Amino acid sequence: MENKAAVFSEIMKLTERFFLDNEDPVLALKYARFFKEGYDPYGLSEEMIRDHKRMLVEKYSFSPQEAAELGHSFLKTGKYEFGSLAVMLLKKFRPKFNLEVFHTVRAWFDDGVENWAHSDMICSNITPVFLELHIVELDGFADWRYSESKWTRRAVPVTMLYLRKTADPAQLLDFIEPMMQDHEYVVHQGLGWFLKQLWVVHPKEVEEFLHKHRNTAPRLIVQYATEKMHKDKRKRFRRDEKPKTQFKKKPTR
């Protein structure tokens, strides 16, 4: 793409105008209750965003990396429809992904993603492709576990859902173990979701892992992870009760 900066600027202005011309405050408020972390929409339907994506693809010639870079600019606006458009656009180039695109998608999470919906859209449609095409192996996500961004960290277990039926469960559990003390709610949700789905395939290994961490892991992780278990089995993963401190009664004078 020649004169990329000018083309990107043109696309940003064109897209913003399209969103403003079609914004719907009623639709914008409809889903607000589902977003505690961040939600700043124009109020467009998914089909309208998809139609705009088709227009961009027909009008401009993108390489996969250019689509990833443009998507990064979309996400950094903080507007919900721009983020959804970023995923829809890059998704078209999945067979042509490469390591450069992988690193740009990491930047999406580090300073672009602001809500669970975009995080999970990317982890369902984009990040597993890097594993599927063997552009990276699981270790390629190792430093994501320590990112300052809670969304980058959440992306690790949610992306790993792709591996739950094919990878060695011991390897997967070892990989998330350093995250079991994470302090962010959305990361707890992601870890619990992953463990719940891995338990369906490998119950013995997951139960041993949860029992090991029952006294130290945030309770939300355990709560999510054990949702599909029988209530009697869930009791096994409660924290041990701390012994009550015994106080000697002071003698009266």
Write a concise keyword list for the protein shown above.
about 250 residues; mainly alpha; Serine Threonine Protein Phosphatase 5, Tetratricopeptide repeat; 14 helices; about 60% helix; globular
Number of helices: 14
What ranges have pLDDT less than 50 throughout 5 or more consecutive residues? none
Relative strand content: under 5%
Mean pLDDT: 93
Quickly count the domains: 2
Task: Compute the number of strand runs.
Answer: 0
The helicity comes to: 55-70%
Structural classification: mainly alpha
N-to-C span? 92 Å
The ordered string of helix (H) and strand (E) elements is: HHHHHHHHHHHHHH
Question: What does the model show?
Answer:
It is a single chain. The protein has 2 domains: 1-114, no CATH class; 137-238, ARM repeat domains (Serine Threonine Protein Phosphatase 5, Tetratricopeptide repeat). Helices cover 59% and strands 0% of the residues. It contains 14 helices and no strands. Helix 3 (46-59) packs across helix 5 (80-91), helix 4 runs parallel beside helix 6 (99-111) and helix 11 packs antiparallel against helix 12 (203-213).
Could you outline the blueprint of secondary structure elements for this entry?
Layout (H helix, E strand, L loop, with lengths): L3 H18 L3 H6 L15 H14 L4 H13 L3 H12 L7 H13 L4 H10 L1 H6 L17 H11 L8 H8 L8 H17 L1 H11 L5 H7 L5 H4 L19
Helix pairs in contact: 3-5, 4-5, 4-6, 5-7, 7-9, 9-11, 11-12, 11-13
